Amino acid sequence: MEGSAAPQEFEVAIGSSISSPEAFGASFEPAPDGDSLVLGEGLGGDPAIAFRRTLGMFATGVTILTTRAGDQVYGMTANAFMSVSLRPPLVLVSVDRRARLCNMLHEGTRLGVNVLEAGQAALSDHFARRAIDGTPEPRFELVRDTPLVEGALAHLVARIVRSYWGGDHSLFLGQVEFARYGEGRPLLFHRGRYERLIDVPPVFSELPRELLDPILALGEERSYADGDAIMERGEVRAELMLVLDGTVRIERPGLSIERGPGTLIGEIEVLNPGGGRTADVHAVGRVRGVAVSRDALLTALEADPRAAIALIEVLASRFRETA
Q: CB 3.0-4.6 Å disulfide test: which of 39, 102, 103, 112 passes with 95?
């Protein structure tokens, strides 16, 4: 998403006492021997490595878990985090028993859960002990006497209410006392590497004006009344449109955003006419725009090959972002 909004924060109401099975407590016995892991066809080698690679197929967000002892802040990177309950608000984290943080968490301890934003991979590496020279030191703010990482996409403060045996990990159930979130894209983790979401990737809007203007000059001007459908999801229509005046609402599952003058719509679809529209676009109030057909676009690219080369460079950069 472009831009940012003021973070939303709220105190989470604490409900009545939690009714749950008794936990194993903070002291764990050695893990019992289990049945040998059976590997699927074509998999071999160390079963533990195969198991880890299998789990790596499940894409997750990335969090930094934080707490403090005296004036010292402690933190670690973790993607084994999940929500458990809304009423009461509960979350669960899984921590390697060899980690220093594991020995610091017990019932009554407060834990910060910091959900990282797409640009915070270096911060994740810092707390995973993979930091490189020159990585800025993290900054914290205290909320309920708990350190929270500045700039994270979302923050939670949870009080540990139960701890459970989890093999070579310990499971900590936390009752959430504070929550806050802002706008942005999450940092993702999949198959042992960072990933990120690409939302409505710009293509033509990345072109220099001297290459884009001749393309737009071949379009035709259109006007729309409030609520008119400018583009509809699934329709096969190869057009690029520039919003000149007014506001448009772009909607697809899980996304609803409004954009104003200067917005380009249909940047991917005009290059892939058989794929169909991926979003609904409606006018909010009166809207005026310029629509460029695929045929007109191809004419402009043939007239100035520099624009075609620039488009290839932009698309190549999109591949690098997701590689």
A: 102
